[in-house]
Design goal:
The chain contains 14 helices and 21 strands. By secondary structure, the protein is α/β, with parallel strands linked by helices. Strands 2-1-3-4-5-6 form a six-stranded parallel beta sheet, with helices on both faces. Strands 17-18-19-21-20 form a five-stranded mixed beta barrel. Strands 7-10-13 form a three-stranded parallel beta sheet, with helices on both faces.
């Protein structure tokens, strides 16, 4: 009997990858994906705990699901609700006590056991597992059967040992762990066989990757990228999220020499103040970040940089905040993500005495976002008139239109009759939009004529 599975994903791309793998795990047990909770026999909320707002969203969704569950039970069509991801890991059994909507709580390291947990519900009222097992879940996950378009995610590294004082990740995702090169390459080749042309290598701290190579040595991310770039049919590679401390020479050199590695780097700096960086336990100064960016830009001058920022970290003074603004002005980011500091239970910074008032955080965030938005617009404007290769990922709103990504990760809308999703075409940017670009196909004929002229 086919049952329907609805998965709602919150938070980062690591969660998006895990959601796809949970679908793979449940498929052999007769569960097929569906688009709405109303049509589902099982709902999984794959949750995020990074900021308070993200965790709150989960509880309001659970409130809605509770009602739906009741209606379904009255109709004699029971529905299973599972909470996965970082809220599940952080709150564990407490979630089951807090709301009766939840049947299963499953942590990010054990979702391969979901089918057993569903089976357990026939015998017991609730199922709960947030272990960090010694056995690697990646060894037991089934192969992906289908992919969602030509751009895919591939987790190569999980967890984090950095313990930034604001961050829950080391607690919810556990210690740093890298998959083996053999395992990653096999998954990448399989994705390419399924039609994938671009792979984004994922990790909470992806450039801390130190996986076992097939030569008995430990490989870094730069070396892994060079190996994967040899896969025929794979056109593009990206990776995220990186830590400034782990940007080694081999990875920087890969940006200079490996054509398949796209010129985009998400390299969070969080703050431009050394005092705040120290209190955050980031392990680098603002000047070290500046120098690092200099080295990366020397290797790949056109690289688009993006970053995360936190404003209103405990103790952040006006001068500290100004140091962040100065750093942003100096570096120039193509894209960025910025947040008000959100105290997370159990992290050192949450207990700091000098918490910053909400209105100060709000005002700083507004100022920073105005500057970051200006820089994003400036980057988009610089793309106007440029030509680059676009990988088409999905249909656009209009007939014959396709939407793809530039090498710098911007969405590009193109009137692309004759092209298919998965094609890579040469495009000239003709217009910039608030967060994306519009381009025109450059036909072979035009290119040939231009070459003669
Ligand atoms: N408050 C605000 N932002 C946070 N981030 C992580 N923890 C917190 C927190 N407690 C941000 C950081 C990180 C991004 C994924 O989320 O900027 O890089
Ligand atoms: Fe969190 Fe810092 Fe680790 Fe990034 S490096 S996941 S911000 S602890």
């Amino acid at each position: 009997m086919t049952r329907k599975l609805f998965i709602k994903t919150y938070g980062c791309q690591m969660n998006a990858y895990d959601s796809a793998r949970m679908a793979d795990v449940m498929a052999p047990h007769g569960y097929a994906l569906t688009d709405t909770p109303e049509s589902a026999d099982m709902v999984v909320l794959n949750t995020c705990h990074i900021r308070e707002k993200a965790a709150e969203k989960v509880y309001s969704e659970l409130g809605r699901l509770r009602e739906l569950k009741r209606e379904r039970a009255a109709e004699g069509r029971p529905m299973i609700v599972a909470v996965a991801g970082c809220v599940a890991q952080a709150e564990g059994e407490e979630m089951i006590r807090r709301t009766d909507a939840v049947d299963i709580v499953v942590g990010p390291q054990v979702y391969h056991r979901l089918p057993e947990m569903v089976a357990k519900l026939a015998r017991e009222a609730k199922a709960f597992d947030t272990e960090f097992p010694a056995v690697d879940k990646f060894d037991t996950l089934p192969e992906t059967k289908s992919v969602d378009g030509p751009a895919a995610l591939l987790t190569v590294q999980e967890g984090c040992d950095k313990f930034c004082t604001f961050c829950v990740v080391p607690y919810t995702r556990g210690a740093e762990y890298s998959r083996s090169v053999v395992q990653i390459e096999a998954e990448a080749r399989h994705l390419v066989e399924l039609g994938v042309r671009e792979i984004t290598l994922l990790g909470q701290n992806v450039n801390a990757f130190h996986g076992a190579g097939d030569d008995g040595e430990t490989w870094g991310l730069g070396r892994l990228i060079r190996r994967l770039a040899q896969i025929e049919g794979l056109a593009r590679l990206r990776y995220m999220t990186s830590h400034p401390r782990d940007m080694d020479d081999a990875l920087i050199a890969a940006h200079a020499e490996e054509a398949k590695l796209m010129p985009y780097l998400h390299l969070p700096v969080q703050s431009g103040s050394n005092v705040v960086l120290e209190a955050m336990n980031r392990g680098h100064t603002a000047d070290e970040y500046r120098k690092l960016v200099g080295r990366i830009r020397a290797a790949r001058p056109d690289i688009a940089l993006s970053s995360d920022f936190i404003v209103g970290f405990p103790g952040e003074s006006d001068a500290d905040f100004e140091a962040t603004m100065d750093l942003v002005r100096e570096i120039g980011f193509a894209q960025s993500f910025s947040f008000k500091y959100s105290p997370r239970p159990g992290t050192p910074a949450a207990a700091a005495r000098k918490q910053i008032p909400e209105d100060v955080k709000g005002a700083r965030l507004e100022q920073l976002q105005a500057l970051l938005n200006e820089q994003e617009q400036a980057f988009l404007r610089r793309c106007a008139g440029q030509e680059f290769d676009v990988l088409f990922e999905k249909p656009g709103r209009y007939d014959g239109q396709l939407i793809g990504r530039s090498p710098y990760l911007q969405s590009v809308h193109v009137a692309a009759r004759g092209q298919k999703i998965g094609d890579i075409a040469r495009v000239r940017v003709v217009q910039t939009m608030p967060h994306s670009l519009r381009g025109e196909l450059i036909s072979e004929a035009v290119r040939a004529a231009e070459a003669v002229a």
